[in-house]
Amino acid sequence: xxxxxxxxxxxxxxxxxxxxxxxxxxxxxxxxxxxxxxxxxxxxxxxxxxxxxxxxxxxxxxxxxxxxxxxxxxxxxxxxxxxxxxxxxxxxxxxxxxxxxxxxxxxxxxxxxxxxxxxxxxxxxxxxxxxxxxxxxxxxxxxxxxxxxxxxxxxxxxxxxxxxxxxxxxxxxxxxxxxxxxxxxxxxxxxxxxxxxxxxxxxxxxxxxxxxxxxxxxxxxxxxxxxxxxxxxxxxxxxxxxxxxxxxxxxxxxxxxxxxxxxxxxxxxxxxxxxxxxxx
Length: 280
Prior knowledge:
Helices cover 62% and strands 7% of the residues. Helix 1 packs antiparallel against helix 3, helix 3 runs antiparallel to helix 4 (68-95) and helix 3 packs parallel to helix 10. It is mainly alpha-helical. The chain has 10 helices and 6 strands; from the N terminus they run H-H-H-H-E-E-H-H-H-H-E-E-E-E-H-H. It has helices at 3-30, 33-37, 44-64, 68-95, 119-125, 128-140, 147-150, 154-159, 207-211, 224-279, and strands at 101-103, 110-112, 166-168, 173-175, 190-193, 196-198. Its main location: membrane. This is Tetraspanin-2. The chain crosses the membrane at residues 6-31, 43-65, 71-95, 243-264. It is a multi-pass membrane protein.
């Protein structure tokens, strides 16, 4: 096997190994309760990792067994994959840039405004066509009732650092919706337990104040604060996924440049070999 092919095979084997944690990260992302409810967001990272694996495998096989045609296809598909990933990354950063979060005085948690997120996210996730199914899915996950098992007193609950859907409260992760499981703070509801609130002092302060319902199947699942909380968590998780995708693109570009150089060298070596055979 030529030296150039050796280099290409080694580089693609390294890339092949790098695809494994990317696929694992994609599976982790898909397993999150919110992503289970927003189906079309579940598998993009895992799918990209699988494509990365297949492209790297093709490059390794083509280089190790000196299959020049396979190497050519490998380089072509890798270029296409890099371009698609770069486009996806740019769009993902634009869509997830606004956070919609704001701090609540005297509370350890953060609340979210629907208007603070990108219009694309709002239109594709919280529209009337989509929210009904997402809302039913969130209610079925029993995210909110689990809060009552962790927080007994109002002091514990108000001091909790609640994220939009997930927070670490002990040795395990507790999933919940800060926007779905309680009424907005501005309404002035009195705390009974994490999913029961009574006697609002300012019931017209926000449209969500009148939507809140102590029924465990209703709560604030129809509130704008619940929609905003879901978007807040999706944004946070996809910002993490973007880091993985950036690493993936950098590795792909590095592999592509080395593979292109090695492919050209292999072609040159083949020409010299044929030239020598012609003189023999």
